[in-house]
Design a protein that fits this description.
Protein name: Glycosyltransferase, family GT4
Keywords: Glycosyltransferase, Transferase
CATH superfamily of the largest domain: Glycogen Phosphorylase B
EC number: 2.4.1.-
Structural class: alpha/beta
Largest sheet: 7 strands, parallel
Number of helices: 16
Strand content: 15-25%
CATH topology of the largest domain: Rossmann fold
Order of helices and strands: EHEEHHHHEHEHEHEEHHEHEHEHEHEHH
Distance between the termini: 12 Å
Helix content: 40-55%
Pfam families: Glyco_transf_4 (PF13439)
Strand order of the largest sheet: 3-2-1-4-5-6-7
Enzyme class: transferase
Length: about 425
């Protein structure tokens, strides 16, 4: 069986979407003749943890680890909440404190490509012995954090390995990158490192066609699109909520604020007393303050239920029990290629998806192509209102269902088979 070393920052007990992709690839790689070995940090600063994910790690997996120094650990002493938010990519664009502005400037200009850069040198030294011991020929790096790719870059130089670089998100074009208050020199350094990784890796994997097209302007190296997905074992059934629940699972970052949706829901609630009694807006995860402020401005406060962060298993149950599932992306050119990992679990939950995002959104194309829900841009009002009313009428009749098709190609096992062919 061929051995492959996977270098990743996120691993259980990390929670959130960053850990899911490679936790699931590792789960199925053995089915395709590949023995995974995993390298992780020994003392990471995870902004979200989910202890339940440890049960999903395959048996007899070889896991190597090394300590790392993370500046976020020091910053946490001064402001734990703000440090946690910034380290997870949740950047509040409004009413930033002096501390937050300073942290963003330091993060963007002193820690390039990111605050995990100090893990690179000790990892290269440590893994050089592991490569010899395990007689490895292939390594995989997955980012963000993109400093993980710098480990792969150095190991390839030293040992002539086959190196596959996996990008769960873009690098310099991701939405929050421009919020990091980068100097011109820092921007150039980020671009130079991105160029080096994309041109020195033997193969590149991305999660969207948009990112592939973007990277093709930087490198001639082969690029494959392997999206995120869902686990077949999670496609069970639970009792539907009694109320007309519209649920969002995961973080609603600053900028993911569909004001047209809040406006439409507010209008329907004012016009229909029965709808007011049934409507529930449920949020499992962090919601930024500007989103909360907008919902309260539209008098939606009575319908909001904040569930906080839940385990992955709890999130799956909430997806399956909700009447509608809300998917939102920032309305900008840079976010058209963002395909949230939860989209595929939404589809597996077999509940209709209400999606609001930029025009030409790739996630919207997937939803439309699988008939998994309805997609609207940020300017839609009347079509959005009519759709919600149609869904509500179906809910009152007990017949609100998803009519999605061809979602099986997004199962984690099917996607791992695609990956195995590249290896």
């Amino acid at each position: 069986m061929k051995k492959v070393l996977i270098i990743t920052y996120y691993w259980p007990p990390a929670g959130g979407p960053g850990v899911q992709r490679w936790l699931k690839f590792v789960k199925y790689l053995r089915d395709f003749g590949i023995e995974p070995l995993v390298y992780i940090p020994e003392n990471p600063h995870y902004p979200i943890e989910d202890a339940t994910l440890a049960s999903e790690v395959v048996e007899n997996l070889t896991v190597y680890s090394q300590p790392l120094f993370e500046p976020y650990g020091i910053a946490k002493v001064f402001s734990s909440k703000k440090t946690k938010r910034i380290s997870s990519g949740i950047i509040q664009t409004k009413n930033q404190s002096v501390f937050e502005k300073a942290m963003l400037w330091v993060r963007g200009n002193f820690f390039i490509p990111d605050a995990r850069k100090y893990w690179v040198k000790p990892s290269v030294k440590y893994l050089s012995d592991i490569i010899a011991k395990e007689k490895l020929k292939t390594i995989i790096t997955t980012g963000p954090p993109h400093s993980v790719h710098l480990i792969g870059r150095e190991l390839k130089k030293l040992h002539g390995l086959q190196w596959l670089a996996d990008f769960r998100d873009p690098w310099t074009s991701i939405g929050y990158h421009k919020e990091l208050r980068l100097s011109k020199n820092s921007q150039k350094e980020h671009k130079a490192l991105e160029h080096a990784v994309l041109n020195e890796a033997d193969k590149i994997v991305v999660t969207s066609k948009t990112t592939k097209e973007e990277f093709e302007s930087i490198t001639k190296q082969p690029i494959s699109v392997i999206t995120n997905g869902y686990d077949l074992e999670h496609s069970g059934e639970v009792d539907l909520d009694k109320g007309f629940t519209i649920s969002h699972i995961g973080s609603l970052l600053s900028g993911r604020n569909p004001e047209n949706l809040w406006k439409v829901l507010s209008q329907i609630a004012r016009e229909n007393a029965v709808f007011r009694g049934d409507l529930q807006l449920e949020f499992m995860g962090v919601v930024s303050q500007d989103v909360m402020d907008t919902m309260y401005r539209y008098e939606l406060g009575p319908y909001i239920k904040m569930r906080g962060y839940g385990s992955h298993a709890e999130a799956l149950r909430k997806q399956q029990s909700s009447q509608l599932l809300l998917l939102v992306e920032i309305d900008s050119e840079e976010t058209k290629g963002i395909i949230p990992g939860k989209l595929f679990e939404y589809m597996a939950a077999k509940r209709p998806i209400l999606a609001v995002g930029p025009q030409g959104w790739e996630a919207g194309e997937i939803i439309q192509g699988t008939n998994a829900g309805k997609v609207f841009d940020y300017s839609a009002l009347e079509p959005l209102k009519n759709t919600i009313l149609a869904w509500y009428e179906a809910y009152k009749k007990g017949s609100i269902v998803s009519e999605s098709v061809d979602v099986e190609r997004f199962s984690r096992r099917a996607l791992t088979e695609e990956l195995s062919k590249l290896l």
